[in-house]
Amino acid sequence: MVEHVEIRPVLYRWPPAAQFGRVVPKTKFYEHGNVRTALREKFVEDVQRITWAYKLAESTIRLKGTEAVPEIQVFAVETKGSDVPDDVLAAIDKSVHFPILFEISKGEEVRTVAAQKTLGGSTPKLGTYFRTDWLPVAADRQPLPAAIDLPALYESLLTSLLPVATRRGESVSDATGRMDRARTLEREIAALERKLRNEPQLNRKVELRKALKERQAALAGLV
Predict the structure, then answer these.
(1) What is the pLDDT of residues 161-187, one digit of tens each?
(2) Which helix (H) or strand (E) holds 215?
(3) Rounded to an integer, what is the distance from CA 153 to the centroid of its chain?
(4) What is the pLDDT of residues 108-141, one digit of tens each?
(5) DSSP code per residue over 53-79
(6) Burial 148-181 (b: 16+ CB within 10 A, else e)
(7) Nearest CA to 113 among 90, 95, 146?
């Protein structure tokens, strides 16, 4: 299995100067013709309100941005149910040409959610969504990580959400890629183990054991 570490749920104390506080109609994210009906229904059924809560930019927190991370937005999403599905968050993410951190709230609980977002082209590229555990809305918040610019801040914010320990010098992109490769190997190992249990032919068992050992060794190098 991928080596998981204990990640404390993270709630950040966003700078007052960065407060934006604009409610965005849900229809803004699904009124376009390329959004399928099922996704529109999820917006209606699962989302109560979307607020563009904070804007982290040079003009608000005095950290310079780049083409890769010109600003960082914080969106507060109130859910009607138990959570907000990834495809709903992705629809919001793809509609805003800046990296986003989400604070999802249900009743008196809140969690932080984000996917690494790569800008460029007409549609941003999104990685896996990572979610902290739920915390009370009134829980203490911690200050933003120290950073020399917005890309460094974004990297630190995302790193704090990862469910695995990063290695020395490893970026968020590298860590998530390592996790994805490890999950793929875990699935392949499970499939080979099933085949091995059910394979009656000795020569085929030898081949399966060899393939299994190769993947187990590859997995060990990733975790």
Answers:
(1) 887 777 787 778 788 878 788 888 989
(2) helix 202-222
(3) 16
(4) 999 999 999 998 777 888 988 989 889 999 999 9
(5) EEEESHHHH-----SS-S-EEEEEEEE
(6) eebbebbbebbbbbbbbeeeeeeebeebbebbee
(7) 90
Instruction: Confirm if 117 and 126 have CB atoms less than 8 A apart.
Output: yes
Question: What is the SS3 assignment for 142?
Answer: strand
Cβ-contact 106, 136 below 8 angstroms: no
Per DSSP bridges, beta strands 125-131 and 109-118 are antiparallel
CA dist 216 and 77 (Å) reads: 41
Given a contact cutoff of 8 angstroms between Cβ atoms, the answer to whether 22 and 55 are in contact is no
Q: How many residues does the chain have?
A: 223
Q: Which two tokens stand for residue 2?
A: 């991928």
57: which 2 tokens? 């930019």
Residue 103, number of CB atoms within 10 A of its CB: 22
∠ CA 87-144-108, rounded to 5°: 55
Amino acid at 133: D
pLDDT value at residue 50? 96
- Beta-sheet strands, E only, within the chain: 19-23, 47-56, 72-79, 100-106, 109-118, 125-131, 135-136
Task: Tell me if 116 sits within 8 A of 173, measured CB to CB.
Answer: yes
Give the Cβ contact number of residue 88 at 10 Å: 23
3-state secondary structure of 33: coil
Query: Which range (37-51, 172-186, 196-210) has the least confidence?
Result: 172-186
